[in-house]
Design a protein that fits this description.
mainly alpha; globular; 15 helices; cell membrane; transmembrane transporter activity; 70% helix; two-stranded antiparallel sheet
Length: 355
């Protein structure tokens, strides 16, 4: 990490470069600066940013609850994978485009994805809290199991690591408001998973900061002995926090699969492409603040949307180089945006009655 003065110097230099870049783009629209400015300002990039932010933001909120309670869940990427795959396969089995009990099968698929993610989170909690396994190793195991299980089941069902296409949620269009410039197409003509993202982030922020349970979560990660002395069961608080991380990650993975992709590709790093790990970086540089994590998810998702648009227009830059933009930014942000203070008891097992 670098000190505060150097950090503000870096921010000032970055802002100056950005202003210069925008000026060059306006004056020379056919230049590289002009092309990138046009891409960054296009509605397509803005809407893609919101959709791509869904798994990052929701996984980050889930990670905040787990880590604030003292349980480091680096298996968030695995939860995104199993929830995305489960949502798609249940929607496929039920029949996409149809409904049961007047509810679209996409919503039943979303619910299934959340349930599967929650069950995996519960399994992780049992291993870490009940059997006191190393949390980092258990989280890596969760990710690797998901990484192998999803394409394995997909090969059984579809004879391929990739599932069939089940379509996506329709946009929710609010009359009149959807006609407002910029905000209209961003906030009032958008898929339902975007509204779920905003709602879940606000709920997470409120629960963590304004409820007794939120205070217990913080105390569980900072001073579990004091919480235990006050008569609150630390194990139950940690179980609840880790299960909540599964719920939030499940909403993120299933919402992304059914709202943006309509399918699941299980080859390689899967369709999640490391977004769970980006979510961890997001809440760390936001210092565990849910609203800060939301803002960070917009930054990374915006850069992801930007590099996708640049590739689509076929600009003469290697696609491999362009795809690194969001990940390089993760490294730079962690390096230059201040120090994150981990909860004092993060990663430590606790048994009631310990000295």
């Amino acid at each position: 990490m670098i000190d505060g003065l150097s950090r503000w110097t870096v921010i000032a230099i970055t802002a100056s470069v950005a202003v210069l870049w925008i000026a060059l783009g306006v004056v020379f629209p056919d230049s590289w600066a002009g092309v990138t400015l046009s891409v960054a300002a296009s509605p397509g990039t803005h809407t893609a940013m919101l959709r791509l932010a869904v798994p990052i933001a929701l996984a980050a909120i889930g990670g905040i609850f787990a880590e604030k309670s003292g349980v480091i869940n680096i298996g968030i990427e695995g939860l995104l994978i199993v929830s995305a795959f489960s949502a798609v396969i249940v929607t496929f089995w039920l029949g996409s485009g149809e409904s049961t009990f007047a509810v679209s099968h996409h919503w039943w698929g979303l619910l299934a994805g959340v349930l599967v993610s929650t069950l995996f989170a519960l399994l992780f909690a049992v291993v870490c809290i009940e059997y006191k396994a190393d949390q980092i190793i258990a989280g890596l195991a969760l990710w690797l199991i998901a990484l192998g299980l999803a394409p394995f089941v997909s090969r059984i069902v579809f004879d391929s690591p990739n599932t069939g296409n089940v379509g996506t949620f329709d946009n929710v269009t609010i009359p009149v408001l959807s006609e407002i410039p910029l905000l209209g197409y961003l906030l009032f003509d958008t898929p339902p998973q975007v509204y779920l993202m905003f709602g879940a982030v606000l709920v997470g922020w409120y629960v963590l900061n304004w409820t007794s349970f939120g205070r217990w979560v913080v105390a569980s990660g900072e001073n579990p002995k004091a919480l235990d002395t006050a008569g609150v069961d630390v194990r139950k608080v940690r179980y609840a926090a880790v299960i909540l991380s599964g719920v939030f990650a499940g909403l993120g993975g299933a919402g992304f699969a059914l709202g943006q992709l309509g399918t699941f590709a299980g080859g390689g790093e899967t369709d999640m492409q490391g977004r769970g790990f980006i979510a961890i970086a997001t809440y760390l540089f936001a210092n565990y603040h849910p609203l800060g994590a939301l803002a960070g998810s917009f930054l990374f998702a915006g850069l992801d949307a930007f590099q996708l648009r640049i590739q689509n227009i076929g600009y003469a830059v290697p696609s491999e180089l362009i795809r690194t933009i969001p990940y390089v930014t993760v490294i730079l942000v962690i390096t230059f945006v201040g120090k994150t203070r981990l909860p004092d008891a993060a990663g430590e097992n606790y048994e009631s009655g310990e000295d």
